[in-house]
Amino acid sequence: MSEVILAAREPFSFDLSLRALAGFAPCAGGHVISGGRVRKAFLLGAEAVVADIGPAADRPGVALTLHADRHLLPTERAAVHRAVAQWLGLDDDLSAFLDVAGRDPAMATLLRAAHGLHQVRFSSLAEGAVYFALVQRSTQWYAAARKRRLAAEFGPSLTVDGVEHVAFPSLAMVAARDEAELVRFAGNRLRARRLREVVEGVAGLDEQWLRTGAYEEVRKALLGLPGVGPFTAHALLLRVLGRPDGAPLGMPQFEDAARAVYGDPPPSPAELREAYGSSIGWWAYYVRTARSWQPEAVPVAA
Q1: What is the distance between the alpha carbons of residues 287 and 283, in angstroms, rounded to a whole number?
Q2: From 219's CA, which of 37, 83, 198, 244 has a CA 20 to 30 Å away?
Q3: What pLDDT score was predicted for residue 167?
């Protein structure tokens, strides 16, 4: 198919998107980066469509070519375009965050190293919900590996240039599996039950409302689902839905990141929330993703 350009809000750097993707351990193996481009399969109905994405030559954004087994209708192409834009955070408005961070001396070096970084996230609500259900009482490595095995088993695939690309299955596809079948991917019955509860619960909510509804109302709805606690709710909101209004700043990884940026003692979670307001999630993303990109920076634990 012909190449199209998906615009991004400025500032935007596709090179930094690739760098962030390369370090995004929960989604390792779900995309292929080569020659300054990335290929990834997206779900379209029950089919896989492969997006081949590179930098746009003359404006902020990405150049996108789609590969499919058949001719795609304009509405179908538009649906994949939206999925790609959400995955790479192309439409994210970072202006409020950059305004505050630009007046925060401790963030100066990090902002220079990460100029144009947009948040890369899970490619679908289903992928994020499955991962955060699997990572509870487990490790990032095991959860990512189990997620890959589940995708390989149930997700449709498409081979492009001799490489098979697997699209992550939908919430409905995963929810259709019984608990006994999910044990093979979850590792034990308790985690399989939690996986099923989380997937069924998230599937019962309207995704568009999750992305655009009042933040506290959406957060409350997620917390009301079986198997979803504060960490999972925050993770879904920020790392899956791209909503920066909140972040679990009391967790050790964010405390360590704040200490690396500000020194000891770092600002308290309350002080950071007061400073960054509804863009606190972008602060959390930048200090966790780009901290090690600074010259002579002390890497923050994953």
Answers
A1: 6
A2: 83
A3: 98
Tell me whether the omega of the peptide bond preceding residue 11 falls within 30 degrees of 0, making it cis. yes
- pLDDT tens digit sequence for 188-242: 999 999 999 999 999 999 999 999 999 999 999 999 999 999 999 999 999 999 9
How far is residue 209's CA from residue 215's CA, in Å, rounded to a whole number? 10
Question: Could you tell me if residue 55 is inside a domain?
Answer: yes
Residue 78 in tokens: 């538009």
CA nearest 226: which of 253, 196, 248?
Answer: 196
Cα separation, 13 vs 1, whole angstroms: 25
Whether 180 maps to a domain, the answer reads yes
Instruction: Name the residue with tokens 């001799």.
Output: 162
Residue-number span of the structural domain to which 208 is assigned: 125-237
Whether the ω angle into residue 226 lies within 30 degrees of 0, i.e. cis, is no
Cβ partners under 8 Å of residue 34, min gap 6: none
Q: What is the DSSP string of 183-227?
A: HHHHSSHHHHHHHHHHHHHHHTS-HHHHHHS-HHHHHHHHHTSTT
Q: Do 218 and 151 have their domain in common?
A: yes
Q: HSE (CB half, 13 Å, CA atoms) of 13?
A: 13
Dihedral of CA 230/232/233/235: which sign? positive
- Last residue in a domain, options 187, 221, 237: 237
| 280 within some domain | no
Residues 144, 28: Cα–Cα separation, whole Å: 7
Among 41, 64, 90, give the residue marking a domain's end. Answer: 90
Short-list 244, 88, 24, CA closest to 80: 88
Task: Give the Cα separation of 180 and 189 in Å (integer).
Answer: 7
**Best CA proximity match to 51, nearest among 26, 76, 27, 28:** 76
